[in-house]
Amino acid sequence: MCGVLGLILGHVGDDPDAPCKAAVALHEALYFLQHRGQDACGIATCAAGGRIYQCKGNGMAAKVFADGLRVQDLPGSMGIGHLRYPTAGTSSNAESQPFAHNGNLINAPDLRQHLDTVAHRHINTDSDSELMLNVFANELNETGKARVNTDDIFNALGRMYERCSGGWACTAMIAGFGVLGFRDSYGIRPLVLGEKDSETLPGARDYMLASESIALRQLGFSNIRDILPGQAVFIQKGRAPVFHQVQERKAYSPDIFEYVYFARPDTVIDGISVHASRQRMGYKLADKIRELLGNDVIKDIDAVIPIPETSNTSAASVSERLGLKFCQGFVKNRYVFRTFIMPQQGARQKGVRRKLSAIQTEFEGRCVLLVDDSIVRGTTSREIVAMAREAGARKVIFASCAPPITSPHIYGIDLASPMELIASGKDRFAIAKSIDAEEVIYQDLDDLKAACAELSPPNGPTEFEVGVFCGKYVTPVPEGYFDHLNSLRGTKRKHHAQISSSGPTIVVGGSQTGTNGSTAHLGMLGGKDSLEITRNGAVSPMRDDISIHNLANEPERR
Protein backbone atom coordinates (compact mmCIF):
# COMPACT_ATOMS: atom_id res chain seq x y z
CA MET A 1 0.00 0.00 0.00
CA CYS A 2 1.28 3.43 -0.89
CA GLY A 3 0.19 7.02 -0.97
CA VAL A 4 0.23 8.95 -4.25
CA LEU A 5 -0.17 12.63 -5.14
CA GLY A 6 -0.27 14.76 -8.28
CA LEU A 7 -0.56 18.54 -8.56
CA ILE A 8 -0.69 21.12 -11.34
CA LEU A 9 -1.03 24.82 -10.58
CA GLY A 10 -3.19 27.17 -12.59
CA HIS A 11 -0.34 29.68 -12.57
CA VAL A 12 1.76 28.04 -15.28
CA GLY A 13 5.47 28.76 -15.44
CA ASP A 14 8.05 29.54 -12.80
CA ASP A 15 6.82 32.20 -10.38
CA PRO A 16 9.85 34.21 -9.18
CA ASP A 17 8.00 35.09 -5.98
CA ALA A 18 7.11 31.46 -5.19
CA PRO A 19 9.24 29.17 -7.41
CA CYS A 20 8.58 26.05 -5.33
CA LYS A 21 4.86 26.50 -4.69
CA ALA A 22 3.90 23.09 -6.14
CA ALA A 23 6.55 21.30 -4.09
CA VAL A 24 5.44 23.10 -0.93
CA ALA A 25 1.88 21.81 -1.37
CA LEU A 26 3.00 18.29 -2.26
CA HIS A 27 5.33 18.19 0.73
CA GLU A 28 2.52 19.28 3.04
CA ALA A 29 0.20 16.63 1.58
CA LEU A 30 2.75 13.87 2.23
CA TYR A 31 2.19 14.24 5.97
CA PHE A 32 -1.55 13.61 5.59
CA LEU A 33 -0.78 10.33 3.80
CA GLN A 34 2.27 9.25 5.84
CA HIS A 35 0.27 6.34 7.32
CA ARG A 36 0.11 4.81 3.84
CA GLY A 37 3.87 4.35 3.49
CA GLN A 38 6.78 4.70 5.89
CA ASP A 39 9.51 2.94 3.91
CA ALA A 40 10.39 5.71 1.46
CA CYS A 41 9.00 8.83 -0.15
CA GLY A 42 9.73 11.37 -2.83
CA ILE A 43 8.59 14.36 -4.87
CA ALA A 44 9.34 15.15 -8.51
CA THR A 45 8.51 18.56 -10.03
CA CYS A 46 8.69 20.00 -13.52
CA ALA A 47 9.98 23.53 -14.11
CA ALA A 48 10.49 25.74 -17.14
CA GLY A 49 11.72 23.96 -20.24
CA GLY A 50 10.40 20.62 -19.03
CA ARG A 51 13.28 20.08 -16.62
CA ILE A 52 12.47 17.61 -13.85
CA TYR A 53 13.75 17.94 -10.29
CA GLN A 54 13.36 15.21 -7.72
CA CYS A 55 14.09 14.50 -4.08
CA LYS A 56 13.54 10.97 -2.78
CA GLY A 57 14.94 8.56 -0.26
CA ASN A 58 14.30 5.92 2.36
CA GLY A 59 12.46 6.99 5.48
CA MET A 60 9.55 9.19 6.46
CA ALA A 61 8.81 12.56 4.87
CA ALA A 62 10.37 14.66 7.63
CA LYS A 63 13.67 12.81 7.26
CA VAL A 64 13.81 12.70 3.47
CA PHE A 65 12.95 16.39 3.11
CA ALA A 66 15.02 17.52 6.12
CA ASP A 67 11.92 18.93 7.84
CA GLY A 68 11.06 20.88 4.70
CA LEU A 69 14.48 22.35 3.88
CA ARG A 70 14.72 20.28 0.69
CA VAL A 71 11.52 21.74 -0.76
CA GLN A 72 13.33 24.90 -1.84
CA ASP A 73 15.32 22.75 -4.28
CA LEU A 74 12.19 21.67 -6.21
CA PRO A 75 10.95 24.46 -8.50
CA GLY A 76 8.06 24.12 -10.92
CA SER A 77 4.30 24.50 -11.30
CA MET A 78 3.49 20.78 -11.47
CA GLY A 79 4.65 17.68 -9.67
CA ILE A 80 3.87 14.27 -8.19
CA GLY A 81 4.52 12.75 -4.78
CA HIS A 82 4.81 9.21 -3.46
CA LEU A 83 4.96 7.43 -0.10
CA ARG A 84 6.15 3.86 -0.43
CA TYR A 85 5.13 0.79 1.50
CA PRO A 86 6.98 -2.15 -0.09
CA THR A 87 4.91 -5.17 -1.09
CA ALA A 88 7.43 -6.77 -3.44
CA GLY A 89 11.01 -6.01 -4.30
CA THR A 90 13.27 -4.37 -1.76
CA SER A 91 13.54 -1.28 0.39
CA SER A 92 16.08 0.19 -2.01
CA ASN A 93 16.29 3.95 -2.37
CA ALA A 94 15.86 3.52 -6.13
CA GLU A 95 12.38 2.07 -5.65
CA SER A 96 10.92 5.30 -4.23
CA GLN A 97 9.94 6.27 -7.74
CA PRO A 98 8.76 9.66 -9.02
CA PHE A 99 6.11 7.72 -10.95
CA ALA A 100 3.60 7.41 -8.11
CA HIS A 101 1.94 4.00 -7.95
CA ASN A 102 -0.32 2.53 -5.27
CA GLY A 103 -1.14 -1.14 -5.68
CA ASN A 104 0.36 -4.35 -6.99
CA LEU A 105 0.71 -6.07 -10.35
CA ILE A 106 -0.05 -9.77 -10.29
CA ASN A 107 1.50 -10.53 -13.68
CA ALA A 108 4.86 -8.85 -13.04
CA PRO A 109 7.00 -11.80 -14.29
CA ASP A 110 5.21 -11.76 -17.67
CA LEU A 111 5.62 -7.98 -17.94
CA ARG A 112 9.30 -8.19 -17.13
CA GLN A 113 9.80 -10.79 -19.89
CA HIS A 114 7.84 -8.67 -22.40
CA LEU A 115 9.87 -5.56 -21.62
CA ASP A 116 13.12 -7.47 -21.91
CA THR A 117 12.53 -9.56 -25.01
CA VAL A 118 10.03 -7.48 -27.01
CA ALA A 119 10.24 -3.84 -25.93
CA HIS A 120 13.99 -4.05 -25.12
CA ARG A 121 13.67 -1.76 -22.12
CA HIS A 122 16.08 -1.84 -19.18
CA ILE A 123 14.45 -2.58 -15.80
CA ASN A 124 16.54 -1.12 -13.03
CA THR A 125 14.82 -2.26 -9.80
CA ASP A 126 12.64 -5.06 -8.45
CA SER A 127 9.62 -2.74 -8.22
CA ASP A 128 6.55 -3.66 -10.25
CA SER A 129 5.83 0.08 -10.42
CA GLU A 130 8.84 0.46 -12.69
CA LEU A 131 7.40 -2.28 -14.88
CA MET A 132 4.12 -0.38 -15.27
CA LEU A 133 5.93 2.87 -16.01
CA ASN A 134 8.00 1.18 -18.71
CA VAL A 135 4.97 -0.50 -20.30
CA PHE A 136 3.24 2.90 -20.45
CA ALA A 137 6.35 4.64 -21.79
CA ASN A 138 6.79 1.96 -24.43
CA GLU A 139 3.18 2.35 -25.58
CA LEU A 140 3.69 6.12 -25.82
CA ASN A 141 6.85 5.50 -27.83
CA GLU A 142 4.87 3.35 -30.26
CA THR A 143 3.05 6.51 -31.43
CA GLY A 144 6.28 7.56 -33.14
CA LYS A 145 5.62 11.18 -32.19
CA ALA A 146 8.08 13.61 -30.68
CA ARG A 147 5.19 15.34 -28.88
CA VAL A 148 2.09 13.41 -27.83
CA ASN A 149 -1.40 14.79 -27.29
CA THR A 150 -4.13 13.89 -24.82
CA ASP A 151 -5.65 11.25 -27.10
CA ASP A 152 -2.24 9.60 -27.49
CA ILE A 153 -1.89 9.41 -23.71
CA PHE A 154 -5.30 7.81 -23.21
CA ASN A 155 -4.76 5.35 -26.08
CA ALA A 156 -1.37 4.33 -24.66
CA LEU A 157 -2.97 3.86 -21.24
CA GLY A 158 -5.65 1.65 -22.78
CA ARG A 159 -2.99 -0.60 -24.29
CA MET A 160 -1.11 -0.64 -20.99
CA TYR A 161 -4.29 -1.75 -19.20
CA GLU A 162 -4.57 -4.68 -21.62
CA ARG A 163 -1.10 -5.87 -20.57
CA CYS A 164 -1.22 -5.20 -16.80
CA SER A 165 -3.25 -7.16 -14.23
CA GLY A 166 -3.86 -6.27 -10.59
CA GLY A 167 -4.99 -3.26 -8.62
CA TRP A 168 -3.53 0.23 -8.92
CA ALA A 169 -4.06 3.95 -8.57
CA CYS A 170 -1.32 6.06 -10.14
CA THR A 171 -0.24 9.59 -10.81
CA ALA A 172 2.31 10.51 -13.46
CA MET A 173 3.76 13.64 -15.00
CA ILE A 174 4.41 14.28 -18.69
CA ALA A 175 7.25 16.81 -18.64
CA GLY A 176 6.16 20.25 -19.76
CA PHE A 177 2.67 19.00 -20.67
CA GLY A 178 0.58 18.01 -17.66
CA VAL A 179 -0.32 15.60 -14.88
CA LEU A 180 -2.08 12.25 -15.27
CA GLY A 181 -4.07 10.07 -12.85
CA PHE A 182 -5.63 6.64 -13.47
CA ARG A 183 -7.24 3.76 -11.58
CA ASP A 184 -7.58 0.03 -12.21
CA SER A 185 -10.73 -1.31 -13.88
CA TYR A 186 -12.00 -2.90 -10.67
CA GLY A 187 -11.63 0.21 -8.50
CA ILE A 188 -9.52 -1.69 -5.97
CA ARG A 189 -7.17 1.17 -5.03
CA PRO A 190 -8.52 4.68 -4.30
CA LEU A 191 -7.79 7.95 -6.12
CA VAL A 192 -9.53 11.33 -5.87
CA LEU A 193 -9.28 14.71 -7.63
CA GLY A 194 -9.94 18.15 -6.15
CA GLU A 195 -9.66 21.75 -7.29
CA LYS A 196 -9.35 25.26 -5.90
CA ASP A 197 -8.74 28.83 -7.04
CA SER A 198 -5.16 29.78 -7.78
CA GLU A 199 -3.63 31.90 -5.05
CA THR A 200 -1.45 33.85 -7.48
CA LEU A 201 -3.37 34.11 -10.76
CA PRO A 202 -7.02 35.35 -10.69
CA GLY A 203 -9.40 33.10 -12.63
CA ALA A 204 -6.99 30.14 -12.77
CA ARG A 205 -7.58 26.81 -11.02
CA ASP A 206 -5.20 24.44 -9.23
CA TYR A 207 -5.88 20.68 -9.45
CA MET A 208 -4.63 17.94 -7.15
CA LEU A 209 -4.85 14.14 -7.11
CA ALA A 210 -4.43 12.07 -3.94
CA SER A 211 -4.99 8.61 -2.50
CA GLU A 212 -7.26 10.00 0.21
CA SER A 213 -9.62 12.97 0.30
CA ILE A 214 -8.22 14.25 3.59
CA ALA A 215 -5.00 15.39 1.88
CA LEU A 216 -7.03 17.53 -0.53
CA ARG A 217 -9.46 18.88 2.02
CA GLN A 218 -6.75 20.01 4.43
CA LEU A 219 -5.02 21.92 1.64
CA GLY A 220 -8.20 23.77 0.71
CA PHE A 221 -9.28 21.75 -2.33
CA SER A 222 -12.99 21.20 -2.95
CA ASN A 223 -15.29 19.61 -5.57
CA ILE A 224 -13.58 16.35 -4.66
CA ARG A 225 -14.53 13.43 -6.89
CA ASP A 226 -13.39 9.83 -7.19
CA ILE A 227 -11.55 8.64 -10.26
CA LEU A 228 -13.79 5.73 -11.26
CA PRO A 229 -12.73 2.18 -12.13
CA GLY A 230 -10.96 2.08 -15.47
CA GLN A 231 -10.98 5.87 -15.69
CA ALA A 232 -8.11 8.28 -16.29
CA VAL A 233 -7.85 12.04 -16.00
CA PHE A 234 -5.31 14.28 -17.66
CA ILE A 235 -4.81 17.90 -16.64
CA GLN A 236 -2.88 19.82 -19.25
CA LYS A 237 -1.18 22.99 -18.01
CA GLY A 238 -3.54 25.94 -18.16
CA ARG A 239 -6.59 23.77 -18.95
CA ALA A 240 -9.44 21.95 -17.21
CA PRO A 241 -9.22 18.20 -16.50
CA VAL A 242 -10.15 15.77 -19.27
CA PHE A 243 -11.64 12.43 -18.19
CA HIS A 244 -11.59 9.29 -20.29
CA GLN A 245 -12.68 5.69 -19.76
CA VAL A 246 -9.50 3.93 -20.88
CA GLN A 247 -10.86 0.46 -20.16
CA GLU A 248 -14.38 -0.79 -19.61
CA ARG A 249 -15.29 -1.05 -15.93
CA LYS A 250 -15.02 -4.69 -14.86
CA ALA A 251 -16.31 -4.16 -11.32
CA TYR A 252 -16.61 -1.49 -8.65
CA SER A 253 -14.96 -3.28 -5.75
CA PRO A 254 -12.77 -1.15 -3.47
CA ASP A 255 -10.46 -3.03 -1.15
CA ILE A 256 -12.44 -3.32 2.08
CA PHE A 257 -9.19 -3.26 4.08
CA GLU A 258 -9.04 0.47 3.34
CA TYR A 259 -12.12 0.91 5.53
CA VAL A 260 -11.07 -1.64 8.14
CA TYR A 261 -7.54 -0.45 8.72
CA PHE A 262 -5.52 1.43 6.20
CA ALA A 263 -7.28 4.73 5.49
CA ARG A 264 -7.59 7.62 7.92
CA PRO A 265 -11.02 7.91 9.60
CA ASP A 266 -11.46 11.47 8.26
CA THR A 267 -11.24 10.21 4.67
CA VAL A 268 -14.11 9.46 2.29
CA ILE A 269 -13.44 6.71 -0.27
CA ASP A 270 -15.88 6.16 -3.16
CA GLY A 271 -18.50 8.18 -1.32
CA ILE A 272 -18.26 6.09 1.85
CA SER A 273 -17.04 7.74 5.05
CA VAL A 274 -14.32 5.62 6.65
CA HIS A 275 -15.39 6.88 10.10
CA ALA A 276 -19.05 6.02 9.54
CA SER A 277 -18.17 2.57 8.16
CA ARG A 278 -16.13 1.83 11.29
CA GLN A 279 -19.04 2.91 13.46
CA ARG A 280 -21.25 0.39 11.69
CA MET A 281 -18.59 -2.29 11.98
CA GLY A 282 -18.71 -1.74 15.74
CA TYR A 283 -22.48 -2.03 15.97
CA LYS A 284 -22.51 -5.24 13.94
CA LEU A 285 -19.60 -6.66 15.93
CA ALA A 286 -21.47 -5.91 19.17
CA ASP A 287 -24.44 -7.90 17.91
CA LYS A 288 -22.14 -10.82 17.12
CA ILE A 289 -20.56 -10.62 20.60
CA ARG A 290 -23.99 -10.73 22.23
CA GLU A 291 -25.02 -13.66 20.04
CA LEU A 292 -21.93 -15.74 20.87
CA LEU A 293 -21.33 -14.86 24.53
CA GLY A 294 -24.82 -14.22 25.86
CA ASN A 295 -26.00 -11.59 28.32
CA ASP A 296 -24.49 -13.19 31.44
CA VAL A 297 -20.94 -13.00 30.06
CA ILE A 298 -21.52 -9.46 28.79
CA LYS A 299 -22.65 -8.35 32.26
CA ASP A 300 -19.33 -9.58 33.62
CA ILE A 301 -17.39 -7.27 31.28
CA ASP A 302 -16.17 -4.17 33.11
CA ALA A 303 -14.85 -2.13 30.18
CA VAL A 304 -14.50 -1.98 26.41
CA ILE A 305 -10.96 -0.92 25.49
CA PRO A 306 -9.84 -0.11 21.93
CA ILE A 307 -6.41 -0.93 20.55
CA PRO A 308 -5.47 2.55 19.35
CA GLU A 309 -5.98 4.11 16.99
CA THR A 310 -7.74 2.42 14.08
CA SER A 311 -10.28 0.62 16.27
CA ASN A 312 -11.22 3.63 18.43
CA THR A 313 -14.38 4.37 16.46
CA SER A 314 -15.57 0.76 16.30
CA ALA A 315 -14.86 0.13 19.99
CA ALA A 316 -16.98 3.14 20.95
CA SER A 317 -19.86 1.68 18.92
CA VAL A 318 -19.41 -1.72 20.60
CA SER A 319 -19.53 -0.03 24.00
CA GLU A 320 -22.65 1.94 23.10
CA ARG A 321 -24.50 -1.05 21.68
CA LEU A 322 -23.69 -3.35 24.62
CA GLY A 323 -24.22 -0.68 27.28
CA LEU A 324 -20.71 -1.12 28.65
CA LYS A 325 -18.16 1.38 29.92
CA PHE A 326 -15.73 2.67 27.27
CA CYS A 327 -12.22 3.62 28.31
CA GLN A 328 -8.83 4.27 26.77
CA GLY A 329 -6.71 1.64 28.48
CA PHE A 330 -3.71 1.87 26.17
CA VAL A 331 -1.51 4.87 25.46
CA LYS A 332 -0.05 5.03 21.98
CA ASN A 333 3.46 6.28 21.37
CA ARG A 334 3.11 8.38 18.22
CA TYR A 335 6.80 8.34 17.40
CA VAL A 336 7.12 4.75 16.18
CA PHE A 337 6.22 2.91 12.98
CA ARG A 338 3.03 0.96 12.45
CA THR A 339 4.00 -2.52 13.67
CA PHE A 340 1.81 -4.07 10.95
CA ILE A 341 4.33 -3.12 8.26
CA MET A 342 7.51 -4.08 10.12
CA PRO A 343 9.45 -6.75 8.20
CA GLN A 344 10.21 -9.30 10.93
CA GLN A 345 8.28 -10.92 13.75
CA GLY A 346 10.88 -10.01 16.38
CA ALA A 347 10.74 -6.39 15.31
CA ARG A 348 6.93 -6.46 15.43
CA GLN A 349 6.92 -7.89 18.98
CA LYS A 350 9.30 -5.22 20.21
CA GLY A 351 7.39 -2.66 18.18
CA VAL A 352 4.15 -3.42 20.04
CA ARG A 353 5.79 -2.60 23.37
CA ARG A 354 7.28 0.56 21.92
CA LYS A 355 3.97 1.59 20.41
CA LEU A 356 1.56 0.75 23.25
CA SER A 357 1.62 0.85 27.02
CA ALA A 358 -1.18 -0.12 29.40
CA ILE A 359 -2.76 2.17 31.99
CA GLN A 360 -2.73 -0.12 34.99
CA THR A 361 -5.77 1.38 36.74
CA GLU A 362 -7.97 0.56 33.73
CA PHE A 363 -7.11 -3.14 33.91
CA GLU A 364 -6.61 -4.10 37.57
CA GLY A 365 -9.13 -6.73 38.63
CA ARG A 366 -11.27 -6.18 35.55
CA CYS A 367 -12.73 -8.31 32.79
CA VAL A 368 -11.90 -6.32 29.66
CA LEU A 369 -13.21 -6.53 26.11
CA LEU A 370 -10.38 -5.50 23.79
CA VAL A 371 -11.41 -4.36 20.30
CA ASP A 372 -8.92 -4.30 17.42
CA ASP A 373 -9.36 -3.70 13.70
CA SER A 374 -8.07 -7.15 12.73
CA ILE A 375 -5.88 -10.09 13.71
CA VAL A 376 -3.23 -11.00 11.16
CA ARG A 377 -0.31 -13.10 12.43
CA GLY A 378 -1.45 -12.90 16.04
CA THR A 379 1.91 -11.44 17.11
CA THR A 380 0.49 -8.05 18.03
CA SER A 381 -2.64 -9.51 19.62
CA ARG A 382 -0.62 -11.88 21.79
CA GLU A 383 1.56 -9.05 23.08
CA ILE A 384 -1.48 -6.87 23.77
CA VAL A 385 -3.19 -9.61 25.77
CA ALA A 386 0.03 -10.14 27.71
CA MET A 387 0.23 -6.43 28.52
CA ALA A 388 -3.40 -6.44 29.70
CA ARG A 389 -2.71 -9.35 32.04
CA GLU A 390 0.51 -7.76 33.31
CA ALA A 391 -1.56 -4.67 34.15
CA GLY A 392 -3.87 -6.82 36.29
CA ALA A 393 -6.77 -7.88 34.04
CA ARG A 394 -8.60 -10.91 35.45
CA LYS A 395 -10.15 -11.84 32.08
CA VAL A 396 -9.40 -10.75 28.51
CA ILE A 397 -11.88 -11.08 25.65
CA PHE A 398 -10.54 -10.11 22.24
CA ALA A 399 -12.81 -8.92 19.39
CA SER A 400 -11.82 -8.24 15.79
CA CYS A 401 -13.70 -5.80 13.54
CA ALA A 402 -12.59 -7.90 10.57
CA PRO A 403 -13.32 -11.57 9.82
CA PRO A 404 -10.54 -14.18 10.09
CA ILE A 405 -7.76 -13.43 7.59
CA THR A 406 -7.01 -16.72 5.87
CA SER A 407 -5.49 -15.78 2.50
CA PRO A 408 -2.74 -13.51 1.15
CA HIS A 409 -3.47 -9.96 0.07
CA ILE A 410 -2.41 -9.56 -3.56
CA TYR A 411 -3.27 -5.93 -4.36
CA GLY A 412 -0.72 -3.94 -2.41
CA ILE A 413 -0.83 -4.91 1.28
CA ASP A 414 1.82 -7.42 2.31
CA LEU A 415 -0.10 -9.05 5.17
CA ALA A 416 1.68 -12.39 5.47
CA SER A 417 1.98 -15.77 3.82
CA PRO A 418 -0.82 -18.27 4.56
CA MET A 419 1.46 -20.20 6.93
CA GLU A 420 1.99 -17.04 9.01
CA LEU A 421 -1.71 -16.13 9.28
CA ILE A 422 -3.01 -17.19 12.68
CA ALA A 423 -6.50 -17.92 11.35
CA SER A 424 -5.21 -20.30 8.68
CA GLY A 425 -6.47 -23.72 9.75
CA LYS A 426 -7.63 -22.59 13.22
CA ASP A 427 -11.05 -21.84 14.70
CA ARG A 428 -11.67 -18.98 17.13
CA PHE A 429 -11.16 -21.21 20.17
CA ALA A 430 -7.70 -22.33 19.02
CA ILE A 431 -6.83 -18.71 18.24
CA ALA A 432 -7.97 -17.62 21.71
CA LYS A 433 -5.69 -20.22 23.23
CA SER A 434 -2.82 -19.12 21.01
CA ILE A 435 -3.02 -15.46 22.08
CA ASP A 436 -3.94 -16.38 25.72
CA ALA A 437 -7.40 -14.77 25.70
CA GLU A 438 -10.56 -16.20 27.27
CA GLU A 439 -12.51 -15.60 24.05
CA VAL A 440 -11.90 -14.38 20.52
CA ILE A 441 -14.81 -13.04 18.45
CA TYR A 442 -14.60 -12.15 14.77
CA GLN A 443 -16.85 -10.01 12.61
CA ASP A 444 -18.88 -11.91 10.01
CA LEU A 445 -17.85 -11.19 6.42
CA ASP A 446 -21.41 -10.36 5.33
CA ASP A 447 -21.69 -7.89 8.21
CA LEU A 448 -18.39 -6.27 7.30
CA LYS A 449 -19.48 -5.79 3.70
CA ALA A 450 -22.86 -4.46 4.82
CA ALA A 451 -21.20 -1.94 7.16
CA CYS A 452 -19.68 -0.31 4.08
CA ALA A 453 -22.33 -1.01 1.43
CA GLU A 454 -25.11 0.51 3.54
CA LEU A 455 -23.30 3.85 3.34
CA SER A 456 -22.59 3.72 -0.39
CA PRO A 457 -24.12 6.58 -2.45
CA PRO A 458 -26.21 5.98 -5.58
CA ASN A 459 -23.99 4.46 -8.28
CA GLY A 460 -21.35 3.78 -5.62
CA PRO A 461 -19.81 0.41 -4.79
CA THR A 462 -21.95 -2.37 -3.34
CA GLU A 463 -19.35 -5.13 -3.58
CA PHE A 464 -15.81 -5.10 -2.24
CA GLU A 465 -12.48 -6.84 -2.67
CA VAL A 466 -12.47 -9.34 0.24
CA GLY A 467 -10.08 -12.05 -0.98
CA VAL A 468 -8.03 -12.02 2.23
CA PHE A 469 -11.06 -13.34 4.12
CA CYS A 470 -12.31 -15.97 1.69
CA GLY A 471 -9.66 -16.61 -0.98
CA LYS A 472 -11.95 -15.32 -3.77
CA TYR A 473 -10.31 -12.36 -5.48
CA VAL A 474 -12.01 -9.83 -7.70
CA THR A 475 -9.47 -10.25 -10.53
CA PRO A 476 -8.34 -13.46 -12.21
CA VAL A 477 -5.13 -14.68 -10.55
CA PRO A 478 -2.43 -16.08 -12.89
CA GLU A 479 -1.38 -19.67 -12.35
CA GLY A 480 1.70 -19.86 -10.17
CA TYR A 481 1.27 -16.35 -8.76
CA PHE A 482 1.08 -17.47 -5.13
CA ASP A 483 4.28 -19.47 -5.52
CA HIS A 484 5.88 -16.35 -6.98
CA LEU A 485 4.58 -14.29 -4.03
CA ASN A 486 5.96 -16.75 -1.49
CA SER A 487 9.30 -16.73 -3.30
CA LEU A 488 9.49 -12.95 -3.02
CA ARG A 489 8.65 -13.11 0.69
CA GLY A 490 11.30 -15.75 1.25
CA THR A 491 13.90 -13.57 -0.44
CA LYS A 492 12.89 -10.57 1.67
CA ARG A 493 13.14 -12.63 4.88
CA LYS A 494 16.59 -13.89 3.90
CA HIS A 495 17.67 -10.34 3.06
CA HIS A 496 16.46 -8.97 6.40
CA ALA A 497 17.97 -11.84 8.38
CA GLN A 498 21.39 -11.12 6.90
CA ILE A 499 21.48 -7.36 7.50
CA SER A 500 18.92 -6.49 10.17
CA SER A 501 19.93 -5.26 13.59
CA SER A 502 17.93 -4.66 16.73
CA GLY A 503 20.70 -2.41 17.99
CA PRO A 504 22.28 0.77 16.66
CA THR A 505 22.20 1.79 13.02
CA ILE A 506 24.87 0.18 10.85
CA VAL A 507 26.89 2.36 8.47
CA VAL A 508 28.54 0.56 5.55
CA GLY A 509 30.68 2.55 3.15
CA GLY A 510 28.64 5.72 3.50
CA SER A 511 25.26 4.03 3.32
CA GLN A 512 23.00 3.81 6.34
CA THR A 513 21.31 0.50 7.04
CA GLY A 514 18.38 0.99 9.39
CA THR A 515 17.11 -1.45 11.98
CA ASN A 516 14.53 -2.70 9.48
CA GLY A 517 17.28 -3.73 7.05
CA SER A 518 16.60 -0.97 4.52
CA THR A 519 19.43 0.97 2.93
CA ALA A 520 19.40 4.76 2.75
CA HIS A 521 21.93 7.12 1.21
CA LEU A 522 23.69 9.54 3.56
CA GLY A 523 23.84 12.80 1.61
CA MET A 524 27.16 13.01 -0.28
CA LEU A 525 28.94 10.47 1.89
CA GLY A 526 28.25 7.56 -0.43
CA GLY A 527 29.54 8.47 -3.85
CA LYS A 528 30.72 5.89 -6.32
CA ASP A 529 32.73 4.00 -3.71
CA SER A 530 29.72 3.35 -1.46
CA LEU A 531 28.33 -0.13 -0.97
CA GLU A 532 24.76 -1.39 -0.98
CA ILE A 533 23.58 -4.72 0.44
CA THR A 534 21.23 -6.12 -2.16
CA ARG A 535 18.15 -8.30 -1.72
CA ASN A 536 20.17 -11.53 -1.96
CA GLY A 537 22.68 -10.36 0.64
CA ALA A 538 25.44 -9.58 -1.87
CA VAL A 539 27.43 -6.36 -1.68
CA SER A 540 27.42 -4.11 -4.76
CA PRO A 541 28.29 -0.50 -5.54
CA MET A 542 25.64 1.96 -4.35
CA ARG A 543 23.97 3.95 -7.10
CA ASP A 544 20.63 5.62 -7.63
CA ASP A 545 18.42 4.82 -10.58
CA ILE A 546 19.92 5.72 -13.92
CA SER A 547 17.79 8.76 -14.59
CA ILE A 548 17.07 12.01 -12.79
CA HIS A 549 19.52 13.58 -10.39
CA ASN A 550 18.31 13.07 -6.83
CA LEU A 551 18.56 16.26 -4.78
CA ALA A 552 18.39 14.22 -1.57
CA ASN A 553 22.02 13.22 -2.22
CA GLU A 554 23.24 16.82 -2.03
CA PRO A 555 24.24 18.64 1.18
CA GLU A 556 21.29 20.36 2.84
CA ARG A 557 20.84 24.05 2.19
CA ARG A 558 20.25 26.05 5.34
Please explain how this structure is put together:
- With 558 residues, the protein is an alpha+beta fold.
- The chain has 15 helices and 25 strands.
- The strands form 7 sheets. A 7-stranded antiparallel beta sheet has the order 3-2-4-1-9-8-10. It has a 5-stranded antiparallel beta sheet with strand order 5-6-7-11-12.
- Strand 24 and strand 25 form a beta hairpin.
- Helix 3 packs across helix 4 and helix 8 packs across helix 13.
- The longest helix has 26 residues.
- The chain starts with a strand and ends in a 17-residue tail after the last strand.
Radius of gyration: 24 Å
Count the beta strands. Answer: 25
Strand order of the largest sheet: 3-2-4-1-9-8-10
Please state the overall shape, judged from the principal axes of the Cα atoms.
globular
How much strand content do the residues show?
Answer: 15-25%
Enumerate how many helices there are, as a single number.
15
Topology of this structure?
Layout: E1 3-8, H1 21-32, E2 40-46, E3 52-58, H2 61-64, E4 78-84, E5 100-105, H3 108-117, H4 128-141, H5 150-163, E6 166-174, E7 178-183, E8 192-197, E9 205-210, H6 213-218, E10 222-226, E11 231-236, E12 242-245, H7 257-262, E13 268-269, E14 272-273, H8 274-299, E15 303-306, H9 312-322, E16 330-332, H10 345-355, E17 356-358, E18 367-372, H11 379-390, E19 395-400, H12 428-435, E20 439-442, H13 445-453, H14 467-470, H15 481-499, E21 506-508, E22 511-513, E23 519-521, E24 531-533, E25 539-541
Parallel strand pairs: 15-18, 18-19, 19-20
Antiparallel strand pairs: 1-4, 1-9, 2-3, 2-4, 5-6, 6-7, 7-11, 8-9, 8-10, 11-12, 13-14, 16-17, 21-22, 22-23, 24-25
Helix pairs in contact: 3-4, 4-5, 8-9, 8-13, 10-11
